[in-house]
Amino acid sequence: MGNSKISGRVVCTLAASCLAVVLSSGPAFAQAAAGKKEAADGVILSGPVGSESPVETLDVAPIGQPAAGTASDKTADSPAEKAADYWVPTLFGDMGGLRPALARHGVTLGLTEVSEWLSNASGGVKTGQAYHGLTTLTLGLDTQQAGGLEGGSVNFSALHIHGRQLSPNYIGSLQTASGIEALSGPRLWELWYQQKLTDRLDLKVGQQSLDQEFMVSQYAGAFVGTTFGWPAVPSADLPAGGPAYPLSSPGARLRLRVGESVTLLAGMFAGDPANTSTQDPQKANNRGTTFSLHGGTLSIAELQYGLNQPGPAGADATGQRGLSGMYKIGVWYQNRKFSDTRFDSGGLSLANPGGSGRALQHAGNYSVYAVADQTVWGDGAGGPRAVNLFARAMVAPGDRNQVGVSANLGVTMTAPFAGRDNDVLGLGIGYLKIGRNARGLDGDNNGFRALNCPVRNSETFVEATYQYQATPWLVVQSVLQYTRNPGGGVVDPGDPSQTRRIANSTVFGMRANLTF
Fold first, then answer.
1. Is residue 280 part of a domain?
2. Structural domain for 247, as ranges
3. Could you give the 3-state DSSP secondary structure of residue 390?
4. Among 57-61, 73-77, 331-335, 478-482, which is the least confidently predicted range?
5. Residue 54, domain member (yes or no)
6. Number of domains comprising the chain
7. For a Cys-Cys bond, which of 80, 226, 269, 507 suits 251, CB 3.0-4.6 Å?
8. What CA–CA distance (Å, rounded) separates 133 from 267?
9. How many CA atoms lie less than 13 Å away from 218 in the CB half-sphere?
10. 82 lies in a domain?
């Protein structure tokens, strides 16, 4: 691991900085946090954040200056003022007046950094550690405020991915350890225009990443593992993993608010974000500017039902709200041809040396899914403490897909400790089942070649995490993960006899989410 020493120094510096902020500010921040509940109950998404809703312009005092409303008789060194200086929504505040200046022209600016260090302590392909990071720049434009069309908005999102991926180098899992793992380098992520057509209908066109709106579980977003963001079924089964981070596709999405509690999303997108079947898709579209219109069309629809959501419909006659929930069902269809994972064009196994060697072709591919987010307990006094459950399940045809079933299940608790209103504690499980024909091909290979290789079956991923909100602009997150049967029980590439599976993996590490 040529970069391990460098990565180690970077991580140690990051950890020391985060720890210093946390230790020096804990009590003051805990007090200042009272009543400052963040959006989505303090959940920080595991993947890139901010493309769908650019950061709002912030009219705050620059770092190091007294916050608005600070009493003039306080000294510059008073603990209360120091806490106020740090307790601003972003690290750079109004950026010396830049944010307010842009806001006057309808422009919002968002800049975030996610830096993480993860270590595969046992099992997997080999033990080792890696530093990985993601910088996301988001620019939003309100066309009406900018002097243009009423109800329109433009979004531009760019990424700079840096560091080394842990999962492909050390674990060999399908449900990878981190939702930001990707090849290093700068790339365009999203570029779209959204127009409000009526009070209930809006249209979005342009380069889009589906994981920002479709198949999303709010509470699963607290976790680091990829499977809690973009599910294993589309990740493994769609060309290039589908239009999701770090890739995206040109397309159009309609959103219709059917009623106070019901929303319908529907869209059509280019089916292959990289337009390749012979090269790593991230290399084929290495800057996000391929704008591929080939590889079929991906159509998707999702029906959402919100229970006790914010607004008049969520309250009873006394004005009290019940426990909130969000329920979704959806389906996607990709209309290109997909190869059978076991049989050739003549109906023989692809492992049969007497066969044609050309895979049987299927017309199209599809999946049906359901997502549920539900708060099951609140402290009853209007405080931030709550227990939330989430679940998501997807199925796809087992004859043409590597993964036939994937599912997530988990629980999160906000404000788990007194004075820690924005912290989140979570435990989640991810599961996938290898498609039946892919499993059958493994058995066929053993039979025709007199081998005794493992037959792939399933992979289970478990994660425990804790998010510590040190300041509104810094969240420090610890994580512990366990993967059973990495790759679904695939052969260990380091075993010359090809009879041993990749060993179960244990990963631990930390992540820092910074909002500039």
1. yes
2. 4-59+94-515
3. strand
4. 57-61
5. yes
6. 1
7. 269
8. 31
9. 19
10. no
